[in-house]
Structures are given as C-alpha cells and as structure tokens.
Amino acid sequence: MTKQIHLAAHFPGVNNTTVWSDPAAGSHIEFDSFVRFAQTAERGKFDFMFLAEGLRLREQNGLIYDLDVVGRPDTFTVLAALAAVTGHLGLTGTINSTFNEPYEVARQFATLDHLSGGRAAWNVVTSWDAFTGENFRRGGYLAQGDRYERARTFLRTATELWDSWHGDEIIADKQDGRFLAAPAPGAFTHKDAFFDIAGQFNVPRSPQGRPVVFQAGDSDQGRDFAASSADAIFSRHSTLAAGQAFYADVKGRLAKYGRTRDQLLILPAATFVLADTDAEAAQVARQVRRAQVSPQTALRLIEQLWNTELPGFDVDGPLPEFDPVVSDNLISKGRASVRQFAKDPVGLASEWRARAAEGKLSAREVVIEVTGRQSFVGSPETVARIINEFVQADAADGYILVPHITPDGLAPFVDNVVPLLQERGVFRADYTGSTLRDHLGLAPLGRPDETGRQGRHVAASAVS
Ligand SMILES: Cc1cc2nc3c(=O)[nH]c(=O)nc-3n(C[C@H](O)[C@H](O)[C@H](O)COP(=O)(O)O)c2cc1C
C-alpha cells in the first residue's frame, strides 16, 4: 500500500546548518520570523512545526560560541503565540525532562493543547551534559541511564496528571448554579524514586487528551524509550541506508511493548537545496556548504575534535599531524557535535586525515565533507521523487525539514515540491482533521475510565 508522507518544518536552529550571514536571512528571535515560518508551513499543509531547545549558551575556549546564532526564546511562549496566528498546524516543542517538573510541564502542554484546539506535541529530551545542569538548581550531572529513567517516570507522571481529568467534569449549569459534575477532578498521587507529588491538577482535559509525544535520543535506551512511550521519533538518519536501518530497528522494538507499527512514526531531520535543474542545485549546495562551514567555523570544529586551541592554524592547509588531546575536560561545551567527537577523537581524526589524503583536501574541505548536512538536493521533481521513494522504502514515515535560511527558506519547498507530492497523491491536498493526532494518522485517545487507566499513556502499562 502506498504510504502517505508526513512533512514538518524545523525552525532553523542554533547550529551551523543555519546560514545567518546570508543576505536573505532574518532574525531568529523576533516574533515575525516565527509567524512567517509557521504560516508558510501551514500554507504547505504541513503536519507540524518543530522547535528544538537548548538551555545554555554554548562555549568554546571559555568564550560564548557565536559562530552559530546565539539566543533562543522560550518554547512555550513562542508556541502559544503561534497558536493564535495558525489554524491547523501542529505545534511541537522540545522540553527537557531532566531539569523540569512534571506538574509544571503537564500544565503547560495541557494549556497549549487547549489554546491551539488540539495541536500540541512534546519532544521529550533528556540532554546529556553537566554543563547545562549548572543553570539549574538541580545542578550537575545525572548519569545517562538515570536521565532516561527520570524521562520515563516524568512522562508517566505527566500522563497521570493529564488523565486525572476525564473530560466530563465541567457542567457549568447556570440554572442550578453547579459548576462541577464530579467532586474532585484532577486528584493525583504519585510517588517514585524521582517524584513524590500529590494534589489536584488544575487544567481540565485538553482536546487531544494529552500532547502528541516525540522522542529524540539515539542510544539503545533512547530507542526503547521511544518504542515504549512515544508517538513519533525525531532522528538524524536521513539517508536511505541509515534511515532503513533505524526504521527497522525501532519499529522492531514496538512489539515487546504491546504496540503496533502504526503507533510510532519515524521522522528524520532533513535539509534540502532546490534549483531549476539538478546540476544547478548541486552547484548551489556546494555554495551553501561553504557558507555553513566558513573558515572560522572550520577552525572551531577542528579545535573541537582535536580538543585544543589552534591559534594561527591555516584551514586552507592540511589537518594537524598530531593526535587529538584525549581528556574528560573538553574545550567546547554544549554543542551536540562535541559529544560525537568525544566518543573516539583519535579514530575520527585518522578518518578525517584519510579523507583528506584520498581527495587531496584542505582541512576546511574535509570539514565541509564530513559534516555534510544536505539530505535532498535537486530540482523539485528530483526532490519530490526521492522523498517519496525513501518513504515508500521504509527509510522514514516523512521528514522534518530544516531550511538553512531563517525564516523564508521553507517557501521554495512549499511552493515547488509540495504540489508535486500532492499530484502523486502521497501528500494531503488539504487538512482533513483538526488535531495533530489527526494529521499524523494516530488514533484518538480513549477517555480515561473511572480509575483513570484506560486513556493513560502506553508507558504506564508497558514499562512499569
Ligand atoms: C536528532 C536529535 C535531536 C535532538 N534535539 C535536542 C534538542 O533540541 N534539545 C536537547 O536538549 N536535546 C536534544 N537531543 C538530545 C537528546 O535528548 C538526548 O539527550 C541525547 O541525544 C542523549 O541521548 P542518546 O544517547 O539516547 O542519544 C537531540 C537528540 C537527537 C538524536
């Protein structure tokens, strides 16, 4: 059976995919940018818009890392404001389960779901570094295993709060003056190793019952967490082979949690470069890569892998001949690439040198190659065909597109590729439902029964 493609738009992030130096690039802070971006996605009938999150400014060599854009407004505030200027688009926010509290987050998402008429989604992330923790009272480091344990129980607790209202408690009978039909809606008690809370949840049941749940970790634990508890995964595996391997792996884990393959969507992040012809697009893609990896960015990324400052280093010459400095003390803090680099810096450096020797590449050219981030490059026809092929070949259920220009970089895709996917009958011509669950083809949640268990998130029964 031909699969329908899901499409979403990632607001350009705090990383070097975003070419903020491009003359066409606008603010990543001003509300107008968010509005233009969201309304373009909605014009393209996209399932949802996605906001990533970082809770601390990144640093390198003890200074704020300002080669990526710096600054990130609060997710809930932005999404709530966007709910008012969009009508169908899902609103997905990345919110950390390591540094927040379930009552607060459950309340914020239930509110967003109300304000948007059932369009809220939560991308549950754990983060991995102690550096971020320093911003919070909870402080320092929680081991990765404990972070996923906390994420699981955090989500379970939030789900108990959402399910503490069944949807029929408010009657607001103006004749006889009764507001509530039930005596104690929202009552909850939860006690485990991480949370010991009791009270009454104060946001009545929201249109979707709870937000759609996303997960974004890639480890074994992350994948199991998604298989047990998420409705969708945001992954980084956008190539055909890596996508298929990830898809098979994660969908294969669902059965052990009593779930079916249609209950979890796999949505990799994907970048794109479009032009009239494939040859032109390839040419533009090369220019974009050079803008994404400026000489300064190339130097900083090499310093990150070598874990040392390289004053006076010429990025147009060869890579350093010495091996990276292996240490728990990293010169770069908070950037996701650092974690990738730190796994095996010496091995990675020799891979980079081999690439350089093979292609006769300068240090910067190697960085441009190895950090390549262009998933779909070509004419609109080519890109539409490839995306459809990848989805039909189970490399994904759709893609979360990450344009490199804020906020108007999405428009060429919406104007030129979406109509071709619609012509092929693999992408909606218009919205047919009103909630994000509708757009994603996820079955509506049942109402929780009297004991509050029926509509509860699958994690409650599958993981406990
Ligand atoms: C594709 C992807 C996107 C992510 N986006 C964010 C993000 O926006 N904010 C954040 O704090 N962490 C983000 N993370 C980090 C994860 O939540 C998680 O903390 C980290 O990947 C470590 O877990 P893992 O070892 O299971 O991958 C992301 C991870 C992946 C794989």
Structure characterization notes:
By secondary structure, this protein is an alpha/beta fold. 38% of the residues lie in helices and 15% in strands. The chain has 17 helices and 17 strands. The protein has helices at 31-43, 75-83, 102-115, 130-133, 144-162, 220-229, 240-253, 278-292, 295-306, 336-343, 345-359, 363-370, 380-392, 411-416, 418-423, 436-440, 458-462; strands at residues 6-10, 48-51, 59-60, 63-64, 90-96, 120-125, 170-173, 178-180, 187-191, 196-200, 212-215, 232-235, 265-270, 272-274, 332-333, 376-378, 398-401. An 8-stranded parallel barrel has the order 1-2-5-6-11-12-13-17, surrounded by 5 helices. Helix 3 (102-115) crosses helix 5 (144-162). It is globular, with a radius of gyration of 23 Å. Residues 450-464 have low confidence and may be disordered. Residues 52-54, 94, 96, 125-128, 216-219, 221-222, 234-236, 269 line the site of flavin mononucleotide.
